[in-house]
Description:
single chain; 7-stranded parallel sheet; 5-stranded antiparallel sheet
Amino acid sequence: MTMTNNDTSGYLKYLDYTLMSGRLPRNIKISNNNTISKNAQRRIRKEYNLRTTGKTKKQARKIIMDFAKDLRGGTSNFRNEIYAYRFLAQSFNVALQPIRRAIIKKRNEEKQKVLISITIRFRGWNRSKTGLFVLAKEALVNRSTTIEQKNVDKWIREQKREVLVMFQDSPFDKSKVEVVKKNSQNVTDPEPLEWTPIQIAGVMNLDNNVENARWCKNRNMCVVDLIQYRYANRKGFKKKNKTDELIEFWSTHHIDKLSITGYEIDYDIEDKGLMNPNKTGYTLNHIKVWCANFNVNMYCLIDGELVDHFHTERARELKNPPLVFELKNNHMYPILDTAKIKSITNKTKSEVEKNIKSDSQQQKKEKNPEEMDEHKDTDIQIKFLDPNVFASTKNNTYMEYACETMSQDNLMTYPAKNLTLYNGSLSSFKLGENKYLMIKDVVPDEKCINKTQLLNNRNLRCIKQYCLDNNIQYTGQTAPFFIQPYMKDLRLYCSSYYSKSVDKALNDGGVKMRVHYGAKNLYLGSEETMWKSTMSELWNYVLCYDVNKCYRSYMECPQEDWMTIGFQEEVRIWNNDKAFEQVELGLYYIKCANNDLFHYDNWYSSAIINYALKNTDIEFTIKYWIKGTKNDRTLLKDIIDQIKDDYTDIGLQKQMINSIYGYLMKTTNSKTLMNVDEDINRVWDNYIKIKGRKNETLDYDEVECSNGKKLYCYGRKIKTKIMNQNLPMAIQITDGGNIALYEMITRMRNTENSVLLYRNTDSAVVGYLNETDKELMKHKMDKYVNKEIGGYSMNYPPLLKDIYKEKEYEFRHHHYRYTEKKWNDITEYNDSDDWLDIISSLVEEGGGMLLGRAGTGKSYVCIQGMNALKKSGVKCKALAFTNKATIQLKGSTIHKFMTIDKNGKLNIKWAKEQAKHIDVIFIDEISMISSDLWKILAEFKYYTNLPFILIGDYRQLPPVKDTLLGASMDWFNHSTIKYLANNNRIELTAMKRYDIKLWNLLEDVWENDKLKNETECFLRNITPRSIEDMIECKNICYANSTRKMINMMVENHICPDDYIEIPYEDIENKYNQNMKVFIGSKIIMYHTTKCKTLKKNEEVEVVDYGNNWVELTNHNNVDKFRIEWKTFKDFHNKFLMGYATTIHKSQGDTINGIINIFDLNMIRDWLCDKRALYTALSRAKCLQNIRPSVIF
Length: 1192
């Protein structure tokens, strides 16, 4: 190899290695003790073309050392030839690195060919007479090819040029060609974040951050300015960061002490052609190179989220301050607040990397979007809507108003929570020390130009006065803010939680379309002019009446009990073909072509159904119904009375009471934290992040301000479903209002030649033939006119120009058709030996239910399946209702895993986070799961869409004290459980654990009400058991009283002289009793240890003990585990006596030895509970191990 020494650069150039070389050149190996082998020495001489053949050792040594000295430079000699060889080897290896890298890179590129398809959009604009550009043409062109990866960018540029040429003949004043789709993914040519130039000057300041003028010189070199501001005067940084050029150099070169020059170029930056960032702009990769050179940790945030970092522990050792900044507007905004820096940087490297991989770690429970932090805005200046600024916006939207305000103040909102949309609307935003409200301040009533403005003005005046009188800072509070505590309690203790079938029926937007609004279609022709003309003639003699506080009157005096719908209820088909006079409490879907009372086809309360049956001849057909649960009729009246007691201001009372209906009607919430940026690429970065996510979309608005700045407003809109809701009550109120409106219209039309012209929620306009008829009806209606709630008020009719026709049936009716989801029974597999096929099928199908009698190998299938999935990289999580059931699957309880709060609610943010770390969830012993946990599991699936595999046996015991269980006594065919299992089901039928006699006996017990003679004889052969029998065998009983008796008898019989007694002195219950602790005493864990070594309901034995401690073994994986207690009460909170157990506690166990089963007569004759009988019998492995028993 020939070498040349470049005096100007110090770089060594190797002339005979080319990128076409088929062989990758190897480094010269330097031994660990810094010696050079003979082979390595020969190679060095060959590579450097140093000829020593025929020379003496002394001559050869001189040639080597002189060459090394010349190459290194300087006058000092090497100590010996080994040092010279070592230097030459190091020099060779350093110079060889870029060559090796280039060869490897080229080889990889040659191997990689990709299929690339793009959609190119052409847009051309022409300038209008007003000077604005108007879009004249837009076209999409699709192109695709198979090409080497390295040539993709070049090919895309060529295609864009070709598209531009295609439209050259069309004269456009302005045109743009951009890629909008790449391999089916929406893009707009965004630069990858790490290569995005950071250089824009003149950008806006960022709220809650240091002003640009403090550190930035506004010269398109914000990175250099920040480094100089933050580090230029620090020890260890001064010399190499004095000038812009030095910072540029150390942002493109790595310090390398092994190199002859002491540095090495960054080849990735060189490949991108970004070696002059002072001109082209710095990127995150430039910043990382600089940070690596000077041992500085870097943390880059976008919209408050950590997106990139450089981390080295050496930086902390040297106590170098970290470089922390927000990247926005293609500009750096440094974070200099010490507390904020520590919150970001006080993490290990692994913690930081984990933070970047996931957008949000488990956080505190998300607040209700309705619960705005208005009351926390203390010491902030309130600004009302400025009409002049609002009028200057292009489309008169609140988002444009916010952007215009930012532009005028040269200050951008930050963080995103300061510009938040709740349910799609912007009510306020914070900027600097000001909070801007999207409402006008109070004005004299006479300045209001319409009724709506007048009402809003009076409401605002009322709330501001209340805040003033009660020494509360007004920060934009509205009536819903004050009503929250009352409705929160209602939703907590009296609300509906739907099954999947009910949820699908009611959580459809069309269900809420139930208010009469608009002018009646008089069927006078299809022409709008004819309709308007006829309406104008009829409008000459009209009366208009309102129902006073229409909805409030029903809330205070409902026609039926307030309704909630329980989780256990399903949509039912109406099969009552006989005539009926009334229906029971519930919701009913009817088909109706008449809208005098109803709103065509929709769901209605039983109250309006019964009213129609009794008081009208309206024809309708009931198709489906949902049974309701009764609640006290005074429920809402009590809330109204409490509001009247708590708030003396009549105006505020009225606003709060009026907001109750809206609160009840709400079924979803949405929240969007809006970010603002001058860089369009950040918008598309966010779009790509959330694309395909459930319940998440991108809210986006592009605003051009009056000063020419273009701001891009974007945010992740997260939609949450209100699981505990009160829609059935809201339907009752709406139906009650419609009944009141119907009755008022009936009275108004109680004469010939009258016609209903217009309705609006609680008011109606009726036209008459002449003035005489009109006055006659007015006289009749006077007796109903009063100021009482539910009475009538005469009002002015609306202006004819402001009304429109009611929508007719095809636009107004709500279409619904109930279809029961059937199980997809996968019958190919019924043997646990097919575990791989079973688990594969269920996972591929998106989840499923694995059923099987005790002894068919359900747990075996799950254990083997989970192990196989984990080996193939699929992350599994095993859950169960009890700690005991989790032991075999090595999982956790549902309660523990789901982090359920004290109100039984799921943390939504946490749930979404789990979807990033789990692929499949297994849940065992599902027969024991209660309705409350099924709700949580369904909600978890709703937000994560993870596949569930449910394992259980419907023959075994149901959950204890589940008040929602119906006649079927299980949840196995409930629509929500089908949803969790994705409607897939496999049942194991091949016997694995039992002998054939026990198998047949269990089959007889479950399938037949009248048992076979041999089964009956076996179960009736109940024998008294001696103490010795109880000691030697496993004792299972139904009643806790029996369990306590057996425990006491066995303990007294086997207790040695050496023991300690732990009396139970607390309130008597069915679990605890006096206990004696001695070596060999049996205990059942009544709690799970913190380290999860021993779990609740696990059976253990004492191997040693003291006055306040025991050492326990479970005869499995724990030999000695020490547990201490402080008091007797503390002891009994941790342990139960373990010589007998209940059937419920034994569920899931497989017992090898003989089992004494007690209370069989109670189970069969008194309780008639074949589930308990089946569960008890199925704990054994063979029939001969079962002994029907009695104590005496």
